[in-house]
Design goal:
It is built from 3 helices and no strands. Helix 1 (about 5-25) packs across helix 2 (about 30-40). It is globular and about 35 Å long. It is mainly α. The protein has helices at about 5-25, 30-40, 45-60.
Length: about 60
């Protein structure tokens, strides 16, 4: 995944996190988005597994 795409995903997840926290109602899938934002932002070693999963999901939608 290119750096520009990772930055775009981090910004998207960050915006989603801010909007969710403002609503004060966080459900399980919203907590997952917040977790993804944290991993992309922090670039922890878990990012390689998460990055592979996100690439797999995105490639499934783009390779119809």
């Amino acid at each position: 995944m290119s750096e520009s795409l990772v930055l775009s995903l981090a910004l998207l997840f960050g915006l989603a996190t801010v909007l969710l926290l403002r609503s004060r109602a966080v459900r399980w899938w919203e907590a997952l988005l917040i977790g993804l934002f944290g991993m992309y932002l922090g670039q922890t070693p878990v990012i390689y597994s998460t990055n592979g999963l996100v690439n797999w999901l995105l490639s499934g939608f783009t390779n119809s």
